[in-house]
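INFO worker-7 received task bundle
INFO bundle size: 2
INFO processing item 0
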Amino acid sequence: MKDIVDNRRRIGLFRKLRILGLVMRENGIAWTTCFTVYYLASSLAEKAYGAMDRLRHEKSLPGLNSVKLNAEIWNQWDWSAGGEEWTQSEDWKRSLLKNVLQKHVPPKSRILEIGPGGGRWTEHLLPLAEHLSALDISQTCVDRCRERFSSFENAEFKVTDGSSLEGVDDGSIDVIWSFDVFVHINSREVEKYAAEFSRVLKPGGKGIIHHGTLGGKKGGWRSDMTADRFSEILESHSLAVTSQFKEWEDQGTTFQAGLYEDTITMFEKGASAAN
């Protein structure tokens, strides 16, 4: 159905009316009325979203990604699914764990996780961690993770202000991990986070961050970030981008990093950038 709506411009108005008549004859008034409402509402929504995007960029508006809104949204979120509502499939998650997380997070690492949410990735980071610091903008998430992982003495969970890593010591972190978090963080806050990455990483330490690439043009409440902008910000803080990828291959299957052309960016702090 959605492909018909997305390609509505390929059929002229007169032919649309002819098709609508045929639709009614074959499906009846009730079904056709529902379809017509959906068709017209989607057109209005498309125009509204385009206007929102234009205003956001013209006036430098935060959209739904300000620090205050992020805190409010994720404090009120129903975390009963533990964040698995964003898992594309069990195969996708297994492959991401094998080809990204477990491949690039060495055992006995001092790990910083930004945005653990309900602990979706935390449970897989903990077995690799000498120590795990997990910071979240949501007190709800911090409380949930403290309860869920209370038996782990090598983990601590704290609330962050949405742009800093307060309480994390300089040069103390081997790996920074964040997934499904920076898709909601605007470039203004990413700039502040990047300075903090450079501060807390050890020389040779690395980061693995999943983020948006389309400047908020798709995906409803996504941030204003692009892949190029993310790289520029990191490099301006002496963090070298080592890899950016939107997909990976695993035994003949191609897996996507996210639903809206999201990217996973990997970076490293060089020895020359040591504080």
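INFO item 0 finished
INFO processing item 1
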Amino acid sequence: MFERRVTLFKLLGFEVRIDPSWLILALLITWTLAQGVFPGRYPGLTQAAYWIMGAAGAVGLFASIVFHELSHSLVARAYGIPMKGITLFIFGGVAEMDDEPPSPRAELAMAAAGPASSILLGLLFYLVHLLAARGGLAAPAVGVFYYLAMINGILAVFNLIPGFPLDGGRILRALLWGWKGSIRRATRIASQIGSGFGTLLFFLGALDVITGNLVGGLWLFLIGMFLRNASQMSYRQLLARTAFQGEPVRRFMRTDPVTVPAGASVAALVEDYIYRHHYKMFPVVRDGRLVGCVSTREVKAVPRQEWEGRTVADIMTARSCENSVSPEEDAVAAIAMMNRTGSSRLLVVDGDRLAGIVSLKDMLKFLSLKIDLEGENDR
């Protein structure tokens, strides 16, 4: 999902990252608060004061979302669920998990932690707002505290909607999982509700745009579209995880990979390999021995006029734990590595020997065939 995220800092052992799309949200929030919300509620202040309040509100929202996602992450860690970190993007934030929760109880505790933290934070900001108002603090500060109290309440209520992958949907999934004994069935039901709610927001947003509420309608439209896609994707990811769980990479790898000699020019790599075989990554060999891999990513970093004078060895990436797996590695771990690195092909290495190539495309073909033959069995 997030290919260009940047790590901002580390908090309690979790990396907090930001996707460039968050900057769009930050600017929109600041502008909306400075030009609409605060002038309407606190008239008579200077434009500079409104913009400062808007910026402070956006920073407070940033901190509130981090606190919400950090609460998820801390509970997940307590239950032994591996977490990738926290990423902020245009629709808020997400605590990224490497695996599904081990039990309904763990899912319930982790999901409930987010809305509970937002409610707590909202009450805290509201208390500070009351104390600030009674203490005669300047209107800009009082206004920002009130906004942060309200926005945290809204975050809690919205996240409690019982549609996966919202927190309310995860709570619903945990309850259904505990009742039915099947995480797949529970995820399917919660995802269908999430998809339905997303579709509703989609149409409500379109209606708002038609009736003249352009900004509000556009946001509803985009949020609905995102929620619908996210709920469907979450269910497909679970299907993939259960289909590949316990299966070794050996079962899906190609044992006759096309290899590129380290001494070949970049021009030869493009013409004789990439354009001919249509792969984005190739193993690189020297004297029959695996030395690394090269992908279109490295080629694009070389100016076109230098392709003839540069060799594959000059631009290749050495073999590492980020681009290679063992034939006996669990296929789920291989998919997680592809997702983490953004690569759709991995080297399969047995000792120092290239055993083959495993690709996301081949694994998805297997998944499609498995679902086609066996159906979406809820057991």
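INFO item 1 finished
INFO post-check item 1: The longest helix spans residues 47-78.
INFO post-check item 1: The chain has twelve helices and eleven strands.
INFO worker-7 idle
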